[in-house]
Design a protein that fits this description.
The complex is a heterodimer of chains A (247) and B (910).
Chain A: H1 8-21, H2 30-47, H3 49-52, H4 59-67, E1 88-91, E2 94-96, H5 99-108, E3 116-120, H6 126-132, E4 137-142, H7 145-157, E5 163-167, E6 180-185, H8 194-198, E7 200-212, E8 215-224, E9 230-235
Parallel strand pairs in A: 3-4, 3-6, 4-5, 6-7
Antiparallel strand pairs in A: 1-2, 7-8, 8-9
Helix pairs in contact in A: 2-4, 2-5
Chain B: H1 11-35, H2 38-48, H3 51-68, H4 70-92, H5 107-136, H6 141-165, H7 168-189, H8 194-209, H9 212-215, H10 224-230, E1 234-242, E2 245-252, E3 275-279, E4 282-287, H11 307-311, E5 316-320, H12 326-333, E6 338-343, H13 346-355, E7 369-373, H14 376-382, E8 387-393, H15 398-402, H16 416-424, E9 426-437, H17 444-458, E10 468-472, E11 476-482, H18 488-501, E12 504-507, E13 520-521, H19 527-535, H20 539-545, H21 569-574, H22 580-583, H23 586-616, H24 625-654, H25 657-679, H26 685-714, H27 719-737, H28 740-751, H29 756-799, E14 805-806, E15 809-810, H30 830-841, H31 878-883, H32 900-903
Parallel strand pairs in B: 5-6, 5-8, 6-7, 8-9
Antiparallel strand pairs in B: 1-2, 2-3, 3-4, 9-11, 10-11, 10-12, 14-15
Helix pairs in contact in B: 1-2, 1-5, 1-6, 1-7, 2-5, 2-23, 3-4, 3-5, 3-23, 3-29, 4-5, 4-7, 4-8, 5-6, 6-25, 7-8, 16-17, 17-19, 19-20, 23-29, 24-25, 24-27, 24-29, 25-27, 26-27, 26-28, 26-29, 28-29
C-alpha cells in the first residue's frame, strides 16, 4: 500500500531517498559526502543557469560550502542526512536550509572579503559559518534562546571567530555595528523591518527566502542603490514554460 | 432460513453508539486540524474511516461465532471502540509525523501509515458492533438503520454544540464517557454479561486517572503558534475554542509581534507592538493596540491595501473579515465616515472587545464602528445597504496559501457570483478592494483579476478594463474595482501612491508598459502582461497556457484556491530539489493521494471478506456478487455525493459553514432514518427501491434546476425561514436516500446472508471513497455534475437491485412464510427436497444445534413476527433455478455451507 500511494513517476525518486535514508551513520565519510554535495549543487546550478542568470556560482561560495562541516550543525539524529541536498529539522520548529538554497542566497549577495554582514535568524549557525569564510565579520541574531546558544557554542567550537551571535529581537538590527554591506533574513517574515532597511549601506544587498518551512518558493533580493533607492527582484529557482503572450 | 434474532434489537445502544462515532469523527477532524493541518486531517481521517470497511472481514470470518455470543461481542466491541477512541488519538499525537517533510523524506510515509492504522482501530470496532447487530437482527434492519442514522444525526449536531461548550480535548473525554454510557445501555438492553459492568467500571476509573500531560494537545512544531511560543519572552495570554477554531493570543514583551503584511520598503514608521492572534495554531494576524492617536498608525498607510482610501475620501466602509482590527484601524486612520465590519467568528470579536478592550482602545465599541457577526458574502447579499468601499484583505494566512493548502476549501467569498453581489452593493463611484499575497508565478492576484473581469462582463459592463486597477508591492497586491470608470485624477493618484511607497501599478486603463515592474521585478510571467492578456481576446488561450489554473471560481465550482494543473506536475517534480517542491500545490495533491489510497485500500477490504468467506465456505461460490457489488457501491457513492452537493448549496444560502453542515448533515441523517423506517412497509423491496430511486432522481433534478434560483431569491429572508427552506429542500431527498441501503441489506439477509458482511464492507469503503471523490469531481465538473453523477449511480443501483432468488432459493411467499417446493415438483430429487427443508430452516444436516437447543423444529413458519413479515415477496422457483444449472440443490451438504454462518443463532433468536 505504501509503495502504491504515489503515481509511478514518484516512485523512483522516493526509492532513491529511501536508500539514502538507510545508509548507516557510522559508515559515512563526511568529507566525501560533502564533496558529493558540492558537486550536486554545481550540477543543479548548471541546470538552472537560465533561472539564476549565471552558469556557475562564485568559486569562493563553493569553497565555503566544501569546507563548512554541515553535519556539525544538525541534530545527531539527522547526521546521516547532513549532506543530502535538502532542508533538515533542527528542533524548536526550525530548519536548516537546503544547501542549494544557502548557496544561491550567498552567491546573490555578491560578498567581498572586507565586508560586514548581518544575519536575522541564526538557526543552526550553518549559514553564518558559510558567511564567515567569505567576509570580515558576521553579526547574527536569534530569537529562540536554545537555538542561539547552541549555534554560538558550535561556531566557537569549530573556530569561527569572526561570527558574533546574540539572542534577542533582530527587528532593530544590530545598531552599534551598522551599517552593513549585506543583510540576510533567514526567517520568513510578512514585512521587512524598517530599521533593518536603514542599516543597509547604499549599494548594499539584502536577501530573504519566501515560502514556508521546508518549502522555499523563491528568493527576494532587495538592493539599495547608491542614492538610497530601493528595488526588489524575485528570483525563482524554477522556470515555468510556456510564458505569457507578450514575452 | 436465516433465523435472524427475533427479540428487540438494542436500538438505544445503537443510536447512542452511532451518535458517539459520528461525533468522534467530526471531533478528530477538529483535533487534527489543530495539531496538524486541515487537509492532512481530512486525509488521515478518511483513511481511518476505512476501519468501517475492514469490519466486514471480521464479520465474515467470525460472524457466526460472534452471533452465538451476540451480547458479549456487541458489548465488547463497544468497549473496544470507546477505549481505542481515546487511546488511538493520544498515541497518534506521539507519532512523529511532519506533513511538511513528505516531499523530502520517505520515512514520513511510514509515520502516516502508522497514523492511519492507529485511527482505524476505533472505527473498526464501532463498525463491528453495528455490523454485527445488522447481521444478527437481519429482519429488523430497517429499524436498526433508522436508529443508526437518527443517532448519527444527533451526534453531528451534538458535537458542534459540545465544541461550543468545552475545548476539544474535553470533548474527547466527553465522547469517551458517552461511549461508556452506550456500553451500559447495551448491557441493559441485551441483558449482557456480568463482566461488562466490571470492565465499564475499570474504564471509568481509567478515564478519571489519565495524567494531564497525556491528554494535552501536541501541536506540530512547525505551526506558527508553536514557533512563536519558542521565542524568548512569549506568553500565551488568552484562548478560546469553538467549532470554528481554536483561537490563541500570544503576548511577547521581549520580541513583540509586528504584523504589517507587505509593508512598503520606504515606510519610516514601525507598526506598534501587537499581540499575536492564531487560529488552530496558524497566524490569523495580530491584535493592534490603539490609544486613540491615529498618527501612531502611519504604517497602515504604507500597505497596498491603503490605495482605495486615496481614491475615496471619507468613505462609508464595509470591512469583510474584521479579525484583530487592523483593517478597521486602517479605515479610521483614513478618516472613514463610518466603518462596518463583518466577522464570522464571534470569539474573535469577543477577544478584541472584552479581553483586550483596553488594549485596543475600545475599537469595536466606537460610535463610528459597527461589528456584525456574520458570514461576509451572506451579509453583503442579504442586506440592501450599499457602500463607498468594500474592503477585503488577506483573509488567508500566508503559509497555508503559499503551500497551496487551501485548494480543497470551498470559498463562497471569491466566486464570480460573489463578486457580482459585492459590485451590486457599491454606491456610484464606490470601490471593491481585495488584497492578496503575491506569489510567484502570480496565482491569487491574477485569479482575482480574472474573476472581476468576468463579474463585470456578466453585469453588462462594456469595458471592464476601465473599472479595474491592480497594484503590486513586494509581497502583496491590491485589486480595486470601481462602480464606474477610473478618472484621469484617479490615475494620477494611483501613480503617486505607488511612487511614494515603492509599489508598482500592474494595471489601469491607459497605463504605459514602462510604468510596470519599476520597483519590484518579477520574473515573467509578470502581472502587467498577464492583466492585459486577461482583458484581451487571447484570454482563453492564456488561461489554457498558464502554468496554474486561473479560471474564475463559480458557485458551482467554488474552489478559488485550486491552482493545480496536472500538466506541470512532471516538470515540477523533476525540479523538486531546486524549488519545485515549493511550487507544488500540496492541497490538491494530498486530495488525489487520499483518493488513490482509499481506492486501493477499498479494493483490498472488499476482496478480503470474499476471500476469507470463500475459504471458510461462508460466502457462496455463486450468487449475486456482481449485483451486490454494484448495488452497494452505487448507493454508497450516491448518498455522499448528494449529501455533499446539497450541503454546499446550503453553505451559500445559510451563509454560515457551520449552520450549513449542522442543518444539512442532521437533516440528511434524520430524513434517511425516517425513510429507512418507512421502507419496511413496502411489500416488494425491489419495487420499493425503484420508487425510492425515482423519487431521488426527480427531486435531485428539480433541485438542480430550481434550487439555485430559489435560494438566490430567498437569500434576504430571516434566518429561521431560511433554515426551514434548507430543511425542506433536503428532507424529501434524504427520505428516499434512506431506503435503498436497508432494503438491499434485508433482501440480502434473506437470500444470501453470507454476503451481508460483504455488503457492509462495500458500503463502508464506498462512503469513504465517495467523500473524497465528490470533491475531486466538484473541482472538475462542478457540484451540478456531482448531483448528476449521483442520480446516475442511483439509477444503476435500481437496475441491479439484488434478486430475490439465490442458490435456487427464493424467499418469501404471499403468506409471508417460506414454503417448501410444491409437492408436484417431482423433478426435484428427494434429496434436494430434504435439503430445501434444511435451507428453509437454516439448518444444515451437519450443523449442531446451537445454544443447547435444537433449532430444527421451528416449523415452516417464518421466524419473523407476522406484522414485520418482510418475506412477502415471491414464490420459490426451485425448478427454474435447477434448470439454471445450479448443482447445489442436489448436494445438500454443500448448499448449507453458506447457511452455517446464519443458522448458528444465539439461543435467544429462535
Amino acid at each position: 500500500m505504501l509503495s502504491q500511494r504515489w503515481p509511478r513517476f514518484f516512485l523512483g525518486p522516493l526509492l532513491v531517498l529511501l536508500l539514502a535514508g538507510v545508509v548507516p551513520a557510522g559508515a559515512v565519510d563526511f568529507t566525501t559526502l560533502r564533496a558529493q554535495m558540492v558537486e550536486e549543487i554545481v550540477a543543479t546550478v548548471r541546470l538552472t543557469q537560465h533561472e539564476l542568470g549565471k552558469p556557475a556560482l562564485d568559486a569562493r561560495v563553493l569553497q565555503a560550502l566544501s569546507t563548512v562541516p554541515r553535519h556539525e550543525f544538525v541534530p545527531d539524529s539527522e547526521r546521516p542526512h547532513a549532506y543530502d541536498d535538502r532542508p533538515l529539522p533542527i528542533g524548536a520548529g526550525q530548519t536548516i536550509s537546503q544547501p542549494y538554497i544557502v548557496a544561491i542566497m550567498t552567491d546573490l549577495l555578491d560578498l567581498k572579503p572586507d565586508q560586514v554582514v548581518f544575519e536575522l535568524g541564526t538557526g543552526s549557525g550553518y549559514q553564518a559559518a558559510i558567511l564567515a569564510g567569505l567576509v570580515k565579520q558576521v553579526y547574527t541574531m536569534e530569537i529562540i534562546p536554545t537555538l542561539g546558544d547552541r549555534a554560538r557554542q558550535t561556531l566557537q567550537r569549530l573556530g569561527y571567530h569572526n561570527v558574533s551571535v546574540r539572542v534577542g529581537d533582530g527587528y532593530y538590527g544590530w545598531e552599534e555595528h551598522a551599517p552593513f554591506d549585506a543583510i540576510l533574513v533567514t526567517a520568513a517574515t510578512d514585512h521587512l523591518p524598517p530599521p533593518l532597511i536603514r542599516q543597509l549601506k547604499p549599494g548594499g544587498r539584502m536577501i530573504l527566502p519566501v515560502g514556508s518551512s521546508f518549502l522555499t518558493q523563491q528568493l527576494l533580493l532587495v538592493t539599495k542603490a547608491d542614492d538610497g533607492a530601493l528595488r526588489t527582484r524575485t528570483i525563482l529557482p524554477v522556470r515555468f514554460v510556456p510564458l505569457t503572450g507578450g514575452r | 432460513m436465516n433465523l435472524p434474532a427475533t427479540g428487540t434489537p438494542p436500538l438505544r445502544a445503537i443510536a447512542l453508539l452511532s451518535a458517539t462515532a459520528l461525533a468522534y469523527e467530526v471531533l478528530l477532524t477538529r483535533l487534527f486540524a489543530i495539531i496538524q493541518w486541515h487537509h492532512f486531517a481530512s486525509m488521515i481521517i478518511s483513511l481511518a474511516l476505512l476501519g468501517y470497511g475492514a469490519s466486514g472481514s471480521l464479520l465474515t470470518r467470525l460472524g457466526t461465532v460472534m452471533r452465538r455470543r451476540f451480547a458479549d461481542c456487541f458489548v465488547g466491541s463497544i468497549f473496544l471502540f470507546t477505549l481505542s477512541a481515546l487511546t488511538a488519538f493520544l498515541l497518534a499525537q506521539r507519532v512523529p509525523f511532519n506533513a511538511l517533510e513528505i516531499g523530502w523524506d520517505l520515512r514520513q510515509l511510514g509515520a502516516l501509515l502508522l497514523l492511519y492504522l492507529l485511527l482505524a482501530v476505533p472505527f473498526f470496532w464501532v463498525a463491528s458492533a453495528l455490523g454485527l447487530t445488522y447481521l444478527h437482527y437481519g429482519a429488523q434492519i430497517h429499524r436498526l438503520y433508522a436508529f443508526d442514522l437518527v443517532g448519527a444525526g444527533a451526534g453531528a449536531l451534538g458535537v458542534i454544540l459540545l465544541l461550543y461548550v468545552v475545548p476539544p480535548v474535553a470533548a474527547l473525554l466527553t465522547l469517551y464517557a458517552l461511549g461508556l454510557v452506550a456500553a451500559g445501555v447495551a448491557l441493559l438492553e441485551t441483558r449482557g454479561p456480568w463482566w461488562g459492568w466490571l470492565v465499564g467500571l475499570g474504564l471509568v476509573v481509567l478515564g478519571f486517572s489519565l495524567p494531564a500531560p497525556w491528554t494535552a494537545l501536541q501541536m506540530s512544531a512547525y505551526k506558527g503558534l508553536s514557533q512563536s511560543l519558542q521565542v524568548v519572552g512569549a506568553q500565551p495570554v488568552a484562548e478560546r475554542s469553538s467549532p470554528l477554531g481554536l483561537l490563541s493570543v500570544v503576548r511577547n514583551a521581549a520580541v513583540p509581534f509586528r504584523y504589517a503584511p507587505g509593508l512598503s520598503l520606504t515606510a519610516g514608521t514601525l507598526p506598534p507592538p501587537q499581540l499575536g492572534l492564531f487560529s488552530d495554531g496558524e497566524e490569523l494576524g495580530a491584535i493592534t493596540p490603539f490609544t486613540g492617536r491615529l498618527d501612531e498608525l502611519t504604517y497602515l498607510d504604507n500597505l497596498t491595501s491603503a490605495l482605495p482610501y486615496h481614491l475615496s475620501p471619507q468613505p462609508h466602509v464595509l470591512v469583510l473579515g474584521a479579525g484583530g482590527g487592523a483593517d478597521v484601524l486602517q479605515a479610521l486612520y483614513h478618516r472613514a465616515r463610518r466603518v462596518e465590519a463583518v466577522e464570522l467568528n464571534p470569539q474573535v470579536v469577543e477577544l478584541v472587545r472584552d479581553d483586550f478592550g483596553a488594549f485596543t482602545g475600545g475599537l469595536y465599541d466606537r460610535a463610528d464602528v459597527r461589528v456584525h457577526i456574520a458570514e461576509a458574502r451572506g451579509f453583503v447579499a442579504g442586506h440592501r445597504q450599499s457602500y463607498d468601499l468594500i474592503q477585503m484583505t488577506l483573509l488567508d494566512t500566508f503559509n497555508t496559501t503559499a503551500a497551496g493548502l487551501h485548494a480543497l476549501n470551498t470559498s463562497a467569498l471569491y466566486t464570480v457570483e460573489a463578486f457580482q453581489h459585492y459590485l451590486q452593493h457599491l454606491n456610484p463611484g464606490g470601490l471593491l478592494a481585495i488584497t492578496s499575497w503575491l506569489r510567484q508565478p502570480p496565482r491569487d492576484s491574477l485569479k482575482l483579476f480574472a474573476t472581476a473581469v468576468v463579474a463585470l462582463e456578466r453585469l453588462g459592463v462594456p469595458d471592464p478594463g476601465a473599472q479595474l486597477v491592480l497594484i503590486q508591492g513586494w509581497k502583496t497586491t491590491t485589486l480595486v474595482v470601481k462602480n464606474g470608470a477610473f478618472s484621469p485624477e484617479d490615475k494620477a493618484t494611483i501613480r503617486q501612491f505607488c511612487q511614494r511607497r515603492a509599489f508598482d501599478p500592474a494595471w489601469y486603463a491607459g497605463m504605459q508598459a514602462d510604468e510596470a515592474n519599476h520597483f519590484n521585478q518579477l520574473e515573467p510571467p509578470d502581472l502587467y502582461t498577464s492583466a492585459i492578456t486577461l482583458l484581451g481576446p487571447e484570454r482563453e488561450a492564456f488561461l489554457e497556457r498558464y502554468p496554474f489554473n486561473l479560471r474564475p471560481a463559480t458557485d458551482d465550482r467554488p474552489y478559488f484556491f485550486h491552482f493545480f494543473k496536472w500538466r506541470e506536475l512532471p516538470a515540477l517534480w523533476a525540479k523538486r530539489t531546486h524549488g519545485g517542491l515549493g511550487q507544488l500545490e500540496w492541497g490538491y495533491l494530498v486530495l488525489i493521494a487520499t483518493l488513490a489510497q482509499a481506492l486501493l485500500a477499498s479494493v483490498v477490504l472488499i476482496l478480503l471478506p470474499l476471500w476469507l468467506g470463500r475459504r471458510s465456505g461462508r460466502v457462496p461460490a455463486h450468487g449475486p456478487r456482481g449485483r451486490v457489488l454494484v448495488y452497494f457501491t452505487a448507493i454508497g457513492l450516491g448518498f455522499l455525493f448528494l449529501e455533499i452537493a446539497f450541503i454546499q448549496q446550503c453553505m451559500v444560502f445559510l451563509s454560515h459553514p457551520l449552520y450549513a453542515v449542522a442543518v444539512g448533515l442532521c437533516t440528511f441523517l434524520v430524513g434517511a432514518g425516517l425513510g429507512s423506517a418507512v421502507s419496511r412497509r413496502f411489500a416488494d423491496p425491489r419495487r420499493a427501491v425503484r420508487w425510492a430511486v425515482a423519487g431521488i432522481t426527480g427531486w435531485a433534478l428539480v433541485s438542480l434546476l430550481a434550487l439555485p434560483a430559489f435560494f438566490q431569491w430567498a437569500l434576504p429572508w430571516p434566518e429561521p425561514s431560511k433554515w426551514l427552506c434548507a430543511i425542506g429542500s433536503i428532507i424529501p431527498l434524504a427520505f428516499g436516500m434512506g431506503m435503498p441501503f436497508p432494503l438491499g441489506l434485508s433482501l440480502l439477509a434473506r437470500t444470501a446472508p453470507g454476503l451481508v458482511p460483504w455488503a457492509w464492507a462495500i458500503n463502508g469503503c464506498a462512503s469513504v471513497v465517495s467523500a473524497v471523490l465528490a470533491t475531486v469531481l466538484a473541482m472538475q465538473i462542478g457540484f451540478s455534475g456531482v448531483v448528476l453523477a449521483a442520480v446516475m449511480l442511483y439509477l444503476a443501483a435500481a437496475a441491479v437491485t439484488p434478486p430475490l432468488r439465490i442458490g435456487g432459493v427464493t424467499v418469501g411467499g404471499p403468506s409471508g412464510s417460506l414454503q417448501p417446493p410444491k409437492a408436484a415438483d417431482s423433478s426435484l430429487p428427494a434429496k434436494a427436497q430434504k435439503s430445501w427443508q434444511y435451507v428453509a430452516l437454516g439448518v444444515s444436516p451437519g450443523s449442531a444445534p446451537v445454544g443447547g437447543r435444537p433449532v430444527g423444529r421451528t416449523g415452516w413458519s417464518s421466524p419473523y413476527p407476522p406484522d414485520q413479515g418482510p418475506l412477502r415477496a415471491a414464490i420459490p422457483d426451485l425448478r427454474q433455478r435447477d434448470h439454471a444449472g445450479s448443482p447445489r440443490l442436489r448436494e445438500p451438504v454443500r448448499i448449507p455451507s453458506q447457511r452455517r454462518s446464519v443458522i448458528s443463532n444465539s439461543s435467544r433468536s429462535v
